[in-house]
Amino acid sequence: MKTPLQDSSVIKTRVKRRSDSDPHNSGPCGVCQKSNGGLISCDTCGCSYHLHCTKPVMDQAPTNMWFCVRCKHKFSDPSTASTWPGLQSIVHSYFTFEAERNAALQRARKRRDVLIDAEKKLNDQVKALVSTIMNKVTKKYKVHDSVQNATDSYQRLLRGVETLKHLSEFAVTN
After folding, report:
1. Domain with residues 1-75, CATH architecture
2. Three-class DSSP category at 40
3. Distance between CA atoms of 152 and 162, rounded to whole angstroms?
């Protein structure tokens, strides 16, 4: 069974079969230099490419405008923007917008990462403080318990001394 890339009947409408009689024929694939099978054309320069020769490889033809790697590279150079007519100017504006949007997303991701790191540090500090407080509270209760035990022992000792005092008085009177 053929894959969708190998089966020419599955190729989308944007993929055009090129022939020598085709007036829009811009030649063979810009990568493998073969003219067989369905080729897609760059919407700016008209160069043709097989779906499997594009980077990244496409499994189906794009339904919107598509630009080859060379044109994308050209559009990324802002110094040539003012010399482009019509559609190329629009495409350049789109790529400029995309570059700015990607830069803003990158800045937002970095900010998010910084905030996540700060949150982790604060959580670690909170855990350390809670641990310190718990240790101090535990020590306080231990000290309180030992003071209570000492007080109880002292009270027993006083009662014992009182008892001895009464016994000695009783023995002297008898």
Report:
1. 2-Layer Sandwich (3.30)
2. strand
3. 15
Do 94 and 76 contact (CB within 8 A), yes or no? no
DSSP string, 55-88: SSPPSS--SS----HHHHHHHT-GGGGGG--HHH
d(CA 39, CA 35): 8
30-49 in b/e burial notation, b at 16+ Cβ within 10 A? Answer: bbeeebebbbbbbbbeebbb
Closest Cα to residue 15, out of 33, 29, 31, 2?
29
Q: Express each pLDDT in 42-96 by its tens digit.
A: 877 778 888 888 877 888 887 777 778 787 777 666 665 555 566 777 777 788 8
Q: How far apart are CA 156 and CA 167, in angstroms?
A: 16
- CB-CB contact of 17 with 41 (8 Å): no
Whole-number Å distance between alpha carbons of 138 and 67:
69
Tokens 């035990």 -> residue: 149
Contact between residue 107 and residue 84 where contact means Cβ atoms under 8 Å apart: no
CB atoms within 10 A of CB 113: 10
Model pTM?
0.38
Write out the H or E segment, with its range, that includes residue 16.
strand 16-17
pLDDT tens column, 51-63: 888 877 888 887 7
Q: Please give the Cα distance from 3 to 39 (Å, whole number).
A: 16
